Structures are given as C-alpha cells and as structure tokens.
C-alpha cells in the first residue's frame, strides 16, 4: 500500500495543514491586525481606564452594579457622554427614564448645574448660560436614546443592529438588567438568558455593551469601609460567567452620613483579560456624576479602608 493511501487514512495531519489550523492561523493574524487598529472606549475616568488596560473594548459586556441610588445611572451616563464627545457612535437604552429625563441628566453632567435646580427651573443667570452652552455642546454628538418601551432583548437587538448598520454603533448602554423581560422563565433564568444574549450581541456586532445591574442582595449588611465583592450579587452563579468586566460601586457616605459624601470607589471585581483592583473617584451628587479624584488611585480588591482614620 502506498504512503499516500496510508496517510489518507490517518485521523490526524501534520500541524498547520488542516483547515482548522489554517483558520486558527488566520484568526491570529486577524487578531494582531485588529489589535493594532483597535479603538478603546473610555470610561471618562483616567485611573479606571488605566486599570482596565486602556479602557473598554469592542466585544465586551461590562456589568455595573451597586445598591439603589448609589450612582449607577450617573456612571452609565458619564461613560456614554465621554465617548460621544470623542465622536463614538453611542446609544443609551434606559428602561426607567424618558429621553427628556436622560437629556436633563446629560445637561447637568456637562454643565455642572445642580440637577434639582434644572428640574425645578430655578436657575440663576450664570446657570442658564451654562445650561444653554451644554445643550449646544451636546447637540452634534452621535448619541441616540432608545425607546424605553422596548423591553425585551429581541427588541433591543433589532434596534442595536439597525444603529450598527446605519450609524456605525460602537457603544450601547443598557439601564438596567432586571427590567429586561424574558417571558416564561424564573427571574434567575430570565437574567441569565438576557445577559448571555447581550454578551453574544456585543461579540456579533463588535460593540461594547455597558449593562447596569440591580442585583445587590444585602446592601444593609455592607459596611461603609469594606468593598463589595462578586458574592454580594444576587444570582451570582447564573450571571458572573458572561460579563468580561464587573464594576461594583461603593460610596462610604451611602452607608454613613458622617463621612465625606464625595468619596467613592469603583471596584473592578472581575476583568477577564486584565488585573482587578479598586479605583478612587469623586461623586458629585448635585449633578449626578463621577469625576477623577486625587491619589490614592487604585489598590487591591481585597484591601479595606482603615477605620482608624475615622
């Protein structure tokens, strides 16, 4: 029997000769080319971008979580705004607020005008000028608000595909996870189905999806000076596999009114390709935004703050 015939019966071939090997090598080449051209997306926070290896990446699903009213929407709006300012096609899908309400949050974030004063229309002449200047600045930005009545992943997917095709969508912010309905399933299964489909959507469209969560299971038991962890999330086992990045928000003043109310931390509790850690930022409650804070910058995720300082 000839060598050729014998070789044809072998269930394997020399490395580099099979279709799978060729596809693998092509994938590596494509990945290297893509990395050289990759446009990272900013979080709007210098130290957080650094800890994340330069920022957020296309294809990533980023989960932002924390107890109610701690600033999740403020961070989501800040991420969307920072990228839209740089010309990145951005969509914000809020299941809680109308486009008018989101617009008010954006203007407050850009202008620094107190959000409550904007809502009540009690503005000084200087605040009116800042408000108008912010509105002019926002007008040409490539940002779109998605209809809040579209509450399923299927509807969100259709909207995202259309924005990708027509506008070159790069960033989608979804606020928030537990309001995305998946009929005929328990809450845990519904959340797992929704988050897995959103991860698939991020990969298929090559966009970054930032997803606000509302999954803290025991906020009353968290201490002002101890960082939250992944196991503080409800349904942790069902959802933690899918996000590439998990950001947990922590403000000591949320739990203790006697401490500095501007002091805030963003815990990078999971990062699939880079290190984790804790970034110190400042929370400006009047205009509902996070901004860069002076050092210390970031620390180990397991480090807690020294109570002796207080």
TrEMBL record:
PROSITE patterns reported for this sequence: SF4_HELICASE
Bias (Polar residues): 1-17
GO biological process, one term: DNA replication
Start and end residues of each stretch annotated as Disordered: 1-20
SF4 helicase domain sequence ranges: 34-297
Source organism superkingdom: Bacteria
SUPFAM superfamilies recorded: P-loop containing nucleoside triphosphate hydrolases
A Pfam family reported for this protein in Swiss-Prot or TrEMBL: DnaB_C
PANTHER family in UniProt: REPLICATIVE DNA HELICASE (PTHR30153:SF2), REPLICATIVE DNA HELICASE DNAB (PTHR30153)
Protein's name in the database: AAA family ATPase
Annotated source species: Chitinimonas arctica
